Amino acid sequence: MVIPLKKTTQEGEPYQRRTEIEQALSALDGLAPDQLVERLTCTQQAVPFEVLIYFLRHTELELGSEHLEPIFRTFYGRLEAALRKVVSEAWIDYAVAIREELSERIVEMIAKDRDSQEDKMYYWEVNFNHALSNLCTDVLRKHGPARETDPLINARPLTEESDSGEEVSQEVDIAAAEFINSNPSKMDDVAFRLRLMDAINELPEDERRAVGLRWQGMPIESQDPKVETIAKALECTERTVRNRLKRAIEKLRVLLQAEELQ
């Protein structure tokens, strides 16, 4: 029997895995451990991340170390590959350190869930992509430029609008998840996010750098001389930064819309 999720929403309703995840877990339920490992580690028909999380974090399944180890290796390898796409050296500073921290935090969370049985990673079984996106946001903000004495003092919420008005609307704010599409759930689509990352990597270097810094939460400009800004980092005016971001977003929108029409 598939282990149900115990957590409930703010409305008191139990969290539910997506139908395809429940179906996948039901199909795997009852398999002998060796058969289970063979299916979970298959690269040609890869199971969703939510399924791997399920088998890694639930001690009730009583999988031995000889079976958990290959499942974990498969999960970790796929996680690293996904993070290389999402956090690329081409447009994010300290990409290697950011990927390492993300990996370490996810592994630590799995270990704590197994040790404590507190069910803290329940949402990763509901929507792995969204949970990972939220964690990436936290880590990117932490690594974003700030005062040395306080890494978060200058970090801005990724959906915050600038005080300068129309000139930096949500349409131009690269940090907002919905800047390409008015539907924020678009960013939950792994294929869309990977296409977006590839498209960013194809931008000219000056635009790519501006996009990468904005994505990390760095402000374009600031009245506080102690605050690191994109204009300072790129040694140009704030008007130049805004123009680069505007050009970049227009190119990204055109590229991604063209792909959707194909």
TrEMBL record:
> What domain of life?
Bacteria
Q: Which Pfam families match?
A: Sigma70_r4_2
Q: What organism does the UniProt record list as the source?
A: Dasania phycosphaerae
Keywords carried by this UniProt record: DNA-binding, Sigma factor, Transcription, Transcription regulation
Q: Does the keyword Zinc-finger apply?
A: no
Q: Which InterPro entries match?
A: RNA_pol_sigma-70-like, RNA_pol_sigma-70_dom, RNA_pol_sigma70_r4_t2, RNA_pol_sigma_r3/r4-like, WH-like_DNA-bd_sf
A Gene Ontology molecular function term of the record: sigma factor activity
Residue ranges spanning the membrane: these are none
Q: Does the keyword Nucleotide-binding apply?
A: no
Q: Where is the RNA polymerase sigma factor 70 region 4 type domain?
A: 194-252
Q: Which residues form a coiled coil?
A: none
User: What name is this protein filed under?
Assistant: Sigma-70 family RNA polymerase sigma factor
Q: Which GO terms describe its biological process?
A: DNA-templated transcription initiation
